[in-house]
Design brief:
hydrolase; Rossmann fold; Carboxylic ester hydrolase; hydrolase activity; 3-stranded mixed sheet
């Protein structure tokens, strides 16, 4: 675990935060807010939509609607086409079971860090969403829309991990999760003139329009939507900040958890080269021939795409968004600085050992040499690579080359560009709150530290839904549950009020250029001025 200079500090307003009492200061929390019954005596809830009637289920005092189509199935001629309106249905549609997840690579038993991140069944007919609400009524509750991550190739809004139950019940919120096209089906680019290139983006945009047009029927307020996501999902949130159909913003607040803003989003020419590589792998000449192949064959080719597009010392991303000049004209971070995204309330953060997720247990990287890591450091620091290597090495007693590499990658991809965004928004007087998740996991003998994704079960406060995740093994239940209560309550407060402060939580000030306040989420939680300042200045020598 990194012992950087910012670690040796005195926390302001600190205190061990515990349990459900943290929710008592939040409107809609346990203290005194009655739950709205979803239906009488457990009767399945029903809503009327323009597309047709939906019948959901009553689950633990909530009305839940699963597998609701928000766009036409992107199959046949609609494969690699922008999302199209759903034609609707006759009679009453059952909405008690999740829809299939987007096609993706799958390994029985999962991996040694997160376990599984997307489970069968898989189908190209995957454009569905799920809604949890305290009541399908006219209460106009704040809405949270969650976009899952997964490196653009995996994940599902139907996973138990991302159940909206805790947020809906504890915060009196309406929660929406969604599936969207992944991997080659969502991210290939074919360069057709004037055509959308980011099919994943058109899916998510269609889902947001569905929320705008229909969420009131589920007891939600379409004018009070918070869009939240993690990793690739957080990058999606930033990209969607520029969308303003008919001049009306689709959301007013954004939560970016570990957004990989350091990714270089390719332009059309580079994306066409990547697509050509993919076509070569499958031995086809064009998109018409690709449309004739089964999705299983398309997904299987992802393995070879990893091999052909990977670069030593970088987080592998075989499929990426594209600056297609139609759906995406600027980097996602820029969209939160000007235009429609400038006025959005923003909560942004990262984990302290982000890159341990992908590299700490990877044997070839564990065996990395100083010379290999120095060569990688030159990509970031140029002539200052040796000085930077020494700084990272000294921050970890007994650091191995792989430790230096992981900290460098984590800063390049997540922390430093996240800080840059906070700095620029603060300089323009735009609202932004920042956090760093610092609690390490003891799993795998502590090699993971506070790895990428580790904050997720704390945010959702639903550890019972994460039993398959190896990286949670060994956490002290008292510390775990106390921090989860604090984090979950802060997210609810931000969604409801645009401010993460609540009840006994230490004061969480906005990120301002004068103080650069960042909340350290740890066994003892507290706000710290310029928490990552040493590393910010190392990467940006002219920064003050």
């Amino acid at each position: 675990m990194t012992d950087d200079p910012s670690r040796r500090r005195i926390l302001r307003n600190t205190g061990v935060l515990t349990g459900a009492a943290l929710l008592s200061g939040i409107p809609g929390g346990p203290a005194g807010t009655a739950e709205a019954a979803p239906s009488a005596a457990g009767t399945p809830p029903v809503v009327e939509l323009p597309a047709g009637r939906l019948r959901g289920s009553a689950e633990g005092g909530l009305a839940v609607f699963k597998g609701v189509p928000y766009a036409a199935p992107p199959v046949g001629a609609l494969r690699w086409r922008p999302a199209q309106p759903h034609p609707g249905w006759q009679g009453t549609r059952d909405a008690t079971a999740f829809g299939p997840s987007a096609p993706q690579l799958y390994r029985e038993g999962g991996d040694a860090v997160l376990g599984t991140h997307g489970s069968p069944p898989f189908s190209e007919d995957c454009l569905t969403l799920n809604v949890w609400t305290p009541g399908a009524d006219g209460a106009r509750r704040p809405v949270m829309v969650w976009i899952h991550g997964g490196g653009f190739i995996s994940g599902s809004g139907s996973l138990p991990n991302y159940s909206g139950e805790t947020f809906a019940r504890n915060g009196d919120l309406v929660v929406v999760t969604l599936n969207y096209r992944l991997g080659p089906l969502g991210y290939l680019y074919f360069g057709e003139d004037g055509a959308d290139g980011n099919f994943w983006f058109t899916d998510q945009l269609a889902a947001l329009r569905w929320v705008r047009d229909h969420i009131a029927a589920f007891g939600g307020d379409p004018d009070n939507v918070t869009l939240a996501g993690q990793s690739g999902g957080a990058l999606s949130v930033a990209a969607l900040a520029g969308a303003r159909p008919a001049g009306r913003p689709l959301f007013r607040r954004a939560i970016l958890q570990s957004p990989p803003l350091g990714l270089q989003i390719p332009g059309r020419a580079e994306s066409l080269r990547r697509s050509a590589t993919y076509l070569d792998i499958l031995g086809v000449r064009n998109v018409a021939e690709l449309r004739a192949l089964p999705w299983q064959q398309l997904i299987a080719a992802t393995i070879e795409m990893f091999r052909r597009t990977g670069q030593w010392g970088y987080w592998s991303t075989p499929f990426l968004p594209v600056l297609d000049e139609v759906t995406l004209t600027r980097s996602p971070a820029d969209l939160l600085l000007s235009g429609p995204g400038a006025d959005i309330d923003l909560l942004i953060g990262w984990t302290r050992e982000e890159a341990a997720f992908a590299f700490a247990l990877n044997e070839p990287y564990v065996a990395a040499t100083r010379e290999q890591v120095l060569a990688r450091a030159r990509d970031t620091f140029g002539a200052g690579a040796a000085e930077a290597y020494t700084a990272y090495e000294q921050a970890r007693p007994g650091a191995r080359p792989v430790d230096v590499l992981m900290d460098l990658i984590g800063d390049d991809l997540f922390r430093i560009p996240g800080l840059d965004l906070a700095e620029k928004r603060a300089a323009r007087g735009r609202p932004v709150w920042a956090y760093q998740f610092d609690l390490p996991t003891p799993a795998h003998n502590g090699q993971l530290g506070a790895a990428h994704c580790l904050e997720l079960p704390f945010v959702f406060n639903n550890f019972d839904k994460w039993s398959q995740a190896p990286f949670l093994a060994g956490l002290n239940p008292r510390i775990r549950d106390g921090l989860a209560g604090a984090v979950h309550a802060s997210w609810i407060s931000f969604i409801r009020n645009g401010d993460p402060n609540h009840g006994p939580m230490p004061n969480w000030a906005r990120y301002e250029r004068g103080s650069r306040t960042t909340m350290s989420l740890d066994a003892v939680t507290g706000s710290v001025d310029d928490l990552a300042g040493y590393w910010r200045r190392l990467h940006r020598p002219t920064a003050r």
